[in-house]
């Protein structure tokens, strides 16, 4: 399913074969949490170069419901998206709900019991049910249900979550095998399944969790919970050492990561897969990612050929900047948002015009900005792969 092609130090590039296409690693997946990416349609995503995306088991289970999606022929047919899809188990969302407000549910060794934030109805999701739902969705890659503790918890409480994560992972794997047999899914067509390594900022707990999950056996392993400490500092040692605990022929999935800088850091530590709402969410608020250009002098024109521009290497620490287009300084800035980008926004409109759209609260401003940020992320991943392969 996964084959390694090249290395640059600990950064690596390879390929994943899924039933809906081949994916080159490292790669980034936008979050189509509820079966769509906010403000964007299918053509917008394709034009930005998006291929694999993430959908969320918890949210789709609550609305529109698994039965409706099954009746539509599965999530690919429902969304009209025929590139690979990965389903997050929804554990992070469920546990965030309960950790923030214990009145919304409780976590037991058997399952998670929670109240729907939509209508207050009570629901139970066990490891087995989580896997069943993901099979009903018909995704290409799925993630086991895990216990996601905040990094601020005591080590003892995080250890409890690690133990529960391991037990649930074993149950998920058993159910996964049952569903393959029940649904008569061949080895070639089976979805990939990922375990999730928990342990917070404690290297010994991460090591224990990883070793137990590897014993169970998964196609890939995720870095669970936050990758920053309680002060917001990137936990590089933990990130790097956790990658080393994962078998060479297995995928390494940095769940919920992240900013462009964090993606580069994780890639340099040997991780392969990323997902986050950041590019589209930031875009909808007028915050855009801009690639720095290596030339000391460059006169921006309205239309540009990005291939003719020497951009700063993605392996550099400082290869991009973030601007807020709502700032007054962009009121009379008639250059493109990003001279090194050939997205729909940058080819056709100026910074001044985009700022005007936001000032008028026109939805097209959010759409164009989200498209640009996604294109920035897709270009980033393409450049990372090229730098690793061409080293």
Q: In words, what does this structure look like?
A:
- It is a single chain.
- The chain is α/β, with parallel strands linked by helices.
- The protein folds into two domains: 2-276, TIM Barrel, CATH 3.20.20; 282-390, no CATH class.
- The protein has 14 helices and 16 strands.
- The chain has helices spanning 42-47, 57-62, 66-71, 75-79, 91-100, 127-137, 155-182, 203-216, 236-244, 260-268, 278-284, 344-348, 351-359, 363-390, and strands spanning 2-8, 11-18, 21-25, 27-30, 53-56, 85-88, 105-107, 112-115, 122-125, 141-143, 192-197, 220-223, 251-254, 273-276, 287-291, 320-324.
- The strands form four sheets. The chain has an eight-stranded parallel beta sheet with strand order 4-14-13-12-11-10-6-5. Strands 1-2-3 form a three-stranded antiparallel beta sheet.
- It is globular.
- Mean pLDDT is 92; it is low at 295-305.
């Amino acid at each position: 399913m996964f084959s390694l092609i090249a290395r640059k130090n600990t950064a690596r590039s390879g390929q994943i074969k899924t039933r809906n296409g081949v994916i080159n690693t490292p790669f980034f997946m936008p979050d189509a949490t509820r079966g769509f990416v906010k403000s964007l349609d299918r053509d917008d995503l394709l034009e930005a170069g998006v291929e694999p995306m993430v959908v969320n088991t918890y949210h789709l289970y609550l609305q529109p419901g698994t039965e409706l999606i099954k009746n539509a022929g599965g999530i690919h047919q429902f969304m009209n998206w025929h590139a690979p899809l990965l389903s997050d188990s929804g554990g992070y969302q469920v546990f965030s709900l309960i950790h923030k407000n214990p009145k919304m549910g409780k976590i037991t060794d058997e399952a998670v019991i929670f109240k729907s934030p939509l209508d207050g109805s009570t629901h139970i999701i066990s490891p087995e049910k989580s896997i069943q739902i993901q099979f009903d969705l018909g995704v290409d890659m799925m993630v086991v249900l895990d216990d996601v503790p905040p990094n601020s918890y005591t080590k003892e409480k995080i250890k409890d979550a690690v133990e529960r994560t391991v037990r649930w992972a074993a149950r998920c794997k058993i159910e996964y095998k049952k569903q393959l047999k029940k649904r008569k899914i061949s080895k070639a067509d089976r979805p990939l399944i990922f375990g999730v390594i928990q342990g917070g900022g404690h290297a010994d707990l991460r090591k224990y969790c990883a070793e137990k999950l590897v014993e169970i056996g998964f196609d890939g392993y995720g870095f669970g919970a936050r990758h920053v400490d309680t002060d917001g500092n990137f936990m590089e040692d933990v990130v790097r050492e956790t990658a080393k605990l994962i078998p060479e022929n297995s995928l390494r999935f940095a769940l919920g990561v992240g900013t462009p800088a964090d993606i580069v850091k994780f890639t340099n530590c040997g991780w392969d897969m990323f997902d986050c709402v950041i590019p589209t969410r930031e875009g909808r608020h007028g915050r855009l990612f801009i690639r720095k250009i290596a030339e000391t002098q460059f006169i921006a024109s309205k239309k540009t050929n990005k291939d003719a521009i020497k951009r700063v290497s993605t392996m550099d620490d400082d290869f991009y900047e973030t601007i807020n287009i709502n700032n007054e300084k962009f009121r009379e800035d008639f250059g493109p948002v990003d001279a090194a980008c050939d997205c729909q926004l940058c080819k056709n409109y100026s910074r001044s015009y985009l700022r005007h759209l936001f000032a008028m609260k026109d939805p097209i401003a959010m759409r164009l900005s989200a498209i640009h940020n996604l294109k920035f992320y897709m270009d980033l991943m393409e450049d990372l792969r090229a730098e690793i392969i061409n080293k």
